[in-house]
Amino acid sequence: MDISKVPENTRKKKSRSIKQGRKWSKIISYLLLIILSVVFLFPFLWLVFTAVKPEREVLTFPPRMFPSVWKWSNYPEVFKLIDFGQYYLNSIFVSLIGVFGTVLSSTLVAFGFARLKGAGHGIWFALLLATMMLPSQVTMIPVYLIYSKLKLVNTFVPLTLGAFFGSAYYIFLQRQFFLTIPKSLEESARLDGANTFQIFAKIMLPLSVPSVITVALLTFMGFWNDFMNPLIYLNDQSKYTLALGIMQLQGSHVVAWGPLMAASVMVIVPVIITFFVGQKYFIQGIATTGSKE
Amino acid sequence: MKKSFGLKLASLAMLSLGLVAALAGCGSGSSKGGTTEKKEDVTLRIYTWNQDPSGAKREQAIFDEFTKDTGIKVKQVVAPWDKYVDKFMTMASSNTLPDLTWIQTASFATIQKKGLLMDLDSYVKKNIDTDKFLPSALKIGQIDGKQWALPRDMSAQQLSINTDMLKEAGLSMPKNDWTMDEFLDYAKKLTKVENGKTTVFGIDNFYLSPLLLAYSGNNITNPAGTKITIDQKNDVAGVQFASDLVNKYHVSPTSAQAQGISNMFVAEKSAMAICGPWDWQNISENAKFNWDVIPMPTVNSSSVQPQAGLPIGVTSQTKHKKEALQFLKWLSAGRGQKLQMKGVGSVPVLKSQVNDVTKTEFAPKNASSLVDILEHSKMWIAAAYTEDYAEIQTKANNEVSNIILKNLDAKTDLKKLAKSLRSEYNLK
């Protein structure tokens, strides 16, 4: 149909109704997003408010969202009950070493799988992916025995050393990202006289910032929230990480709900900050690791 | 391109690996189980869990007193209650178990059968005056009549009761030797219904074990764990009573009515609840009402009081047997008893000290009734020390919950349950 033959007012009506349709679809989208945000934020807000409730109000029925008395002392109480500061430092230390080790090893190995074609290249990669199918519970005892024989139990080594030997999931993620980088860049660098390691360090890595940050973020969260490894490897309370340390607030007979919630708020703050800082790269990293040149 | 970048990266990697190696160095000196080489400088390790948030610190203060008495250092290895056995088994696999261990009763038989505990029988006979202990105390640490652990404390489950609600209902405090019929009468009178909705229940969830003990003196099995008893006449009556409290008399909540409240008693949603001395501090600090304790009601002459206690064992992997036994004796039969009562409110296992529990900070008025039970009543810890018992208990608890939830006929259902348990675990 020739649009010029449509009367002016009909066209205006149509464009108005399209605009209105868009407006309504936006309103509905935002409304849905707001409702979903509230649903997802509710447990977090409950945690934040419970962290400042007196103990008896945690148990009150019917439950109340806001405390009648704001008990800020739950926060200092955490430091009195457990060595929270020490656990915080331990967690930061373990997480940073873990992130560094994972990023370093995973990017190196991923580069190899993405760009270097050696004998049995495909088989090795399949074998690597197969290790993802192995539940950690299966290897827990044998790995524990190795660290025990090496007299490394009750040190941070069992928690961090594995990070320097790569992780199948992160290697896969990183490899997929490397595959999206045009080979022509690599060839140009080679013509300029760059060797393989220089291509990795000067070309591939700087171009892979989103995926590197994605790996770093996911690793950080993994190390920060890890409970099982500190549980089995650490014996001295002074070496506990946060995930294990705050469990002390949950006794077999008595639970200090207020301080436990306050400690939980303090534990998740770095995770939230890290996620917000790296959010842009994180989404970019995840979104682009599926595409290929 | 500059070649130095690759070198820098490689150096950084070496540096971080070096750092990890250095960490190993700084950790291993004092760690690896804390077993030290010098004879005169023994450090014992004891495996514990946190009973309350500041529990580990207070326990350590008690252990430090042992160091003052003997010069032997004591270090705690603390694990969360629900991961306690996992860590224990992992340490056992690498021969790095601590010298002593608190024992969860559900896993006692398992760790003993695996040979992870030292046999204390001859040590106890030679070195400990067993007459000093309360009548049932030593049984907490016995399997098949042999001593594998010594009790650190002993207590009994009782009922906590909201005395303000009692007054409001015009009721007096029940007598210590009250019966199950009297209990039911109280529970009915204390239940409040407003506009067809129950606002206060007479009793929070009445656990299966104390009910079975009251009705038959058994639990799901006999004390030896060799015979399934839950389908016997008195046990069936006990389970039927549990169901009737919810479905017939409406004095106890269904799980839906409990609405996930962790402590209905403190929240003033139930007038009575099962409690032990370990709850006294929590109730005292958080309840906005007056309260007291009363022994479990009895049904007949077979009734047995539900016992609780904490066994401590010496592990078979200890390298300091003599010192570990010395510490165990100190904790169970020595100065540790008084210090543990003062420091963490544990009830002493020694006849000479048990009365002191009535003078502790959070003791309710009728705390003496607890002492009376510990001194004179027939008691059982309500868990047979067999490897399968924890599993049997879980299955039975699930089935009983089902009976209560669906208001099923207890007799028919328990017969089926008992039959399947007998064939699965090869029991009588």
UniProtKB/TrEMBL annotation, chain A:
It comes from Lapidilactobacillus achengensis. The chain crosses the membrane at residues 27-49, 87-111, 123-147, 153-173, 203-224, 254-277. Keywords: Cell membrane, Membrane, Transmembrane, Transmembrane helix, Transport. Belongs to the binding-protein-dependent transport system permease family. This is Carbohydrate ABC transporter permease. InterPro entries: MetI-like, MetI-like_sf. It holds the Pfam family BPD_transp_1. Gene3D superfamilies: MetI-like. Residues 88-278 form the ABC transmembrane type-1 domain. It is found in: Cell membrane. The keyword Acyltransferase does not apply. It is a multi-pass membrane protein.
TrEMBL record, chain B:
SUPFAM superfamilies: Periplasmic binding protein-like II. InterPro entries: SBP (IPR006059). Keywords: Signal, Transport. The keyword Signal applies. Gene3D superfamilies: Periplasmic binding protein-like II. Residues 1-24 form the signal peptide. Belongs to the bacterial solute-binding protein 1 family. This is ABC transporter substrate-binding protein.
